[in-house]
Each structure stands twice: as structure tokens, then as C-alpha cells.
Automatic annotation (TrEMBL):
Pyridoxal 5'-phosphate binds at G246, E283, A284, G285, R286, Y381. It comes from Parasutterella excrementihominis YIT 11859. This is Diaminopimelate decarboxylase. Pathway: Amino-acid biosynthesis; L-lysine biosynthesis via DAP pathway; L-lysine from DL-2,6-diaminopimelate: step 1/1. NCBIfam families: lysA (TIGR01048). InterPro entries: Ala_racemase/Decarboxylase_C (IPR009006), DAP_deCOOHase_LysA (IPR002986), De-COase2_C (IPR022643), De-COase2_N (IPR022644), De-COase2_pyr-phos_BS (IPR022653), Orn/DAP/Arg_de-COase (IPR000183), PLP-binding_barrel (IPR029066). The gene is lysA. The lineage of its organism: Bacteria, Pseudomonadati, Pseudomonadota, Betaproteobacteria, Burkholderiales. GO terms for molecular function: diaminopimelate decarboxylase activity; pyridoxal phosphate binding. It catalyses: meso-2,6-diaminopimelate + H(+) = L-lysine + CO2. Homodimer.
Length: 437
């Protein structure tokens, strides 16, 4: 049985069972039930400081990409540490406000910002819009004009570099929907700089996610610097360079560069190119919260299929979609491993009626009905991508701090699944003119 743990230093074996900080995971499962997301506060603090430390000597803003884990308590924790936020919807903006965090440190990314979302962000006086298309630029100008407000903008440039990650999380290639074309950037900057409704403050890119090498970041940085050269020649000087997010984490035995190494590599480029004085911005999601979380589940049945053995758990693709969506390998361990070695290869699968509903393939495990298991490094793109498919209730979430644990999201109950639905009668349908008769 593979009991090695990824780089979740706050998750460790003690007395034959797995702990988060100073709390045994089995106690949390007994108290809150499964499936259950458990996060270590210390792991998030450590991850944030791993960026903050190397950035300290420079002008910088370390943003958290809220979509990685949008729980209010996690947002609040990072906000208190000094983080800004990268958002992609009005919903995420409202979360930041609900968590009591500073919207002047918010950066708004995303290809499809609606009029309404742009208005909401202007009202919140956010730090900057990351513009992703010429049409969006026009829309931001129009909304700012209507509101009589100035919008701070940056352009998300598509640097056409290959992040060498899964195709679904590669975002900086010419064929991707993200960002504005590199060759179009200068023209758009000129247009923006002539608009009285705008203040042009920065440049940004985001080339992908789970990137395990500094080279794509360095390539993108060089390309952005070349654009800065061209902009300077056109009399446009920017305040910040935003490198996006994308730094990977360890799920199994990947060697991932630390933020210190990444920052050093980018500093070398910036200094060499004469942009050492620019504010450096990061929009990290996964690398701030990914290693901080575990997803607890209970074995429901062991089933010997004709060709495979299945370990059927109470946690499905609706609770954690990464394995099936990205073919992601995530470590799964029994929370209290048995002493005797009677392992079998099995597929760890969930209750959802889809063949794609799996969490791990060909895992050597010695578990039986009722056993508790943990899927590790589940802090990013886990709960935030969870859905109600198969009318399954969303899991609960717990934040551990030392020997204390607090529920930060209660388990959804069945009534909540359909509380927004409206049960119409035949007559109501008719009176709305929706049925023909
Ligand atoms: C998703 C996203 C991020 C965060 O990516 P990670 O890989 O989680 O660090 C940052 N910026 C933008 C624009 C994104 O869409």
C-alpha cells in the first residue's frame, strides 16, 4: 500500500492514523460525517508566506484566485494575511465583500464579464480589470462613462507559450479563448490610453495551471517585457506586471519549483530588461490552497467485478471532479491503515451513475466496508467545482487550527437541493401562456 503523503506537511501519520495538524482525521469524520473537506489553516498560512517572503523586498501584490477555493472563511483567512484577490465573476466579488475583505485589492479576470458585473466591480472600486478582448474594452469604457467613474485596466495578453500541462488547463496558447492576441496589444493600449474613462495600469498573462517548471513563466515574462518596450516607445508606462497564477503543487512525486525559485527567475528577467521597479502581481490559486486540504470518505462496499475490483465510496465526481475531468492522479490512503498486508488492486469509485465517476484507478489498498479514506491535496478545485449532480448534497467543510476544528460550511440537506425550484401546476403553466392549448 502506498502511504506516502504529498507535500501536505500539516497532514501526517501519528499513532497509526492520519492527522491534520493536531486533530485526528477520524475524529473529524465521526463528528461531521463524510464526505468531508478538511483544511489546515497552517498549510494555507505557510503557502501564502512562501510567496510573501521572496516578494517582500519588491513592490508586489499577492492575489488569491478565488475560484480555487471560494469558502468565505478561506477568503477571510487569506485577506487577513494581506492577500488581494483574483476574481472571475460577480459572485466571487460578493464573496470577498461578505468575508469582509478589501475590494481595492481585487483584480477582475475572465473572458465574459457582463455589463452588470462591470458595474458591480466599478462600484466596489476594484484595483483593476484584466481586459481579455477588444469588445470587452469597449464595454468597460461604456460602463465607466455611464457611471462617471474611471476604470483601471490591464490587458491580459496571450503570450503564446506552452505551459506543458493538461490541455484543459493550458490557457496561454494562440488557440485558447483567453487574452488578447499579442500582436494586437499595442494598438489596444493606445486606444485605452486615449480614453478619458480609463487609467491604464498594467499588463498581465495567465498561461495555465499545475505548471511544474519555471521556463514557461520566464518565456511569458520575456514576451511581456518586449511589449513593455514597445509601449514605452509609444509613451505608455505601466505600473504593474501580473504573472497570473499556475504554479503547480505536489500531488504525487512531482518536483515543483518553490515560489522563491519562481520569483527569483522572474526577477532576473525584470532586472535584465529594465523593469525591476514594476509592481509584481501574482494570481495564485492551487499553490496557495491545494496542499492544505484532504477529502474524507467512507468505504461503502467492496465489489469484485468480472475484470476489476471496485472500492465504492460515499464520495463521487460531483464532490471531486479533478480525476475524471483532468485525468488527475490524487493520493488516496486509508486514514487508519491496517497492519496486515492483504492489499488488492482496486478502482476507487463513487455513487454517481457515470462510468467516469472514479477517484483513483488501480490503487493497491487494504480496506473494507466502513473504513475511512482520505484523498489528499484536495484543497484546490475540489469543493469549488462540486455540484449537485445525481441530487447529491454538497459536502461539509472544516478548518483545522492546531487542536481546534471549526465547521466552515455545513453539509447540505436534501430540502436545500430543490428549495429554489418552483413547483408549477398545469393551470399556472397555462396562465403564463407557456403551454398551447
Ligand atoms: C484560474 C486562474 C488563476 C489561478 O490559477 P492556479 O493554477 O490555481 O494558480 C489565476 N488567474 C486566472 C486568470 C485564472 O483563470
Amino acid at each position: 500500500m502506498n502511504l506516502s503523503l504529498p507535500n501536505d506537511r500539516e497532514f501526517a501519520w501519528k499513532d497509526g492514523t492520519l492527522w491534520c495538524e493536531n486533530v485526528p482525521l477520524k475524529d473529524l469524520a465521526a463528528r461531521f460525517g463524510t464526505p468531508l473537506y478538511v483544511y489546515s489553516k497552517q498549510a494555507i498560512v505557510n503557502a501564502f508566506q512562501s510567496y510573501q517572503k521572496p516578494l517582500e523586498p519588491y513592490k508586489h501584490l499577492m492575489c488569491f484566485a478565488v475560484k480555487a477555493n471560494s469558502n468565505l472563511s478561506i477568503i477571510r483567512l487569506l485577506g487577513k494575511l494581506g492577500a488581494g484577490f483574483d476574481i472571475v465573476s460577480e459572485g466571487e466579488l460578493r464573496r470577498i465583500q461578505a468575508a469582509g475583505c478589501d475590494t481595492s485589492k481585487v483584480i477582475f479576470s475572465g473572458v465574459a464579464k457582463t455589463y452588470h458585473e462591470i458595474e458591480a466591480a466599478l462600484d466596489a472600486d476594484i484595483k483593476c480589470f484584466n481586459i481579455e478582448s477588444p469588445a470587452e474594452l469597449d464595454r468597460v469604457i461604456a460602463v465607466a462613462q455611464k457611471k462617471g467613474k474611471k476604470a483601471r485596466v490591464s490587458f491580459r495578453v496571450n503570450p503564446d507559450v506552452d505551459a506543458k500541462t493538461h490541455p484543459y488547463i493550458s490557457t496561454g496558447l494562440k488557440k485558447n479563448k483567453f487574452g488578447i492576441a499579442y500582436d494586437q496589444a499595442v494598438e489596444l493600449y493606445l486606444k485605452a490610453s486615449r480614453s478619458p474613462e480609463l487609467e491604464v495600469v498594467g499588463i498581465d498573462c495567465h498561461i495555465g495551471s499545475q505548471i511544474t517548471d519555471t521556463a514557461p513563466f520566464v518565456d511569458a515574462c520575456e514576451k511581456l517585457c518586449t511589449l513593455l518596450d514597445k509601449l514605452r516607445l509609444n509613451g505608455i508606462d505601466l505600473q504593474h506586471i501580473d504573472f497570473g497564477g499556475g504554479l503547480g503543487i505536489q500531488y504525487s512525486n512531482e518536483a515543483v519549483p518553490s515560489p522563491t525559485v519562481l520569483v527569483a527567475a522572474l526577477r532576473r528577467v525584470l532586472v535584465k530588461r529594465g523593469y525591476g521597479d514594476k509592481e509584481m502581481i501574482f494570481e495564485a490559486g492551487r499553490s496557495l490552497v491545494g496542499n492544505s486540504g484532504a477529502l474524507l470518505m467512507t468505504v461503502q462496499y467492496m465489489k469484485q467485478g468480472e475484470l476489476k475490483n471496485f472500492c465504492i465510496v460515499d464520495c463521487g465526481m460531483n464532490d471531486m471532479i479533478r480525476p475524471t475531468l483532468y485525468q488527475a492522479w490524487m493520493q488516496i490512503v486509508p486514514v487508519t491503515p491496517k497492519k496486515e498486508e492483504k492489499e488488492t488492486y482496486c478502482y476507487v469509485v463513487g455513487p454517481v451513475c457515470e462510468t467516469g465517476d472514479w477517484l483513483g484507478k488501480d490503487r493497491l489498498l487494504n480496506v473494507q466496508e466502513g473504513d475511512l479514506m482520505a484523498l489528499l491535496s484536495a484543497g484546490a478545485y475540489g469543493m469549488s467545482m462540486a455540484s449537485n449532480y445525481n441530487s447529491r448534497c454538497l459536502p461539509a467543510e472544516v478548518l483545522v487550527d492546531g487542536n481546534r476544528a471549526a465547521l466552515i460550511r455545513k453539509r447540505q440537506c436534501a430540502e436545500e437541493l430543490f428549495s429554489d425550484e418552483i413547483l408549477v401546476t398545469d393551470t399556472q403553466l397555462g396562465s403564463d401562456g407557456l403551454t398551447d392549448q
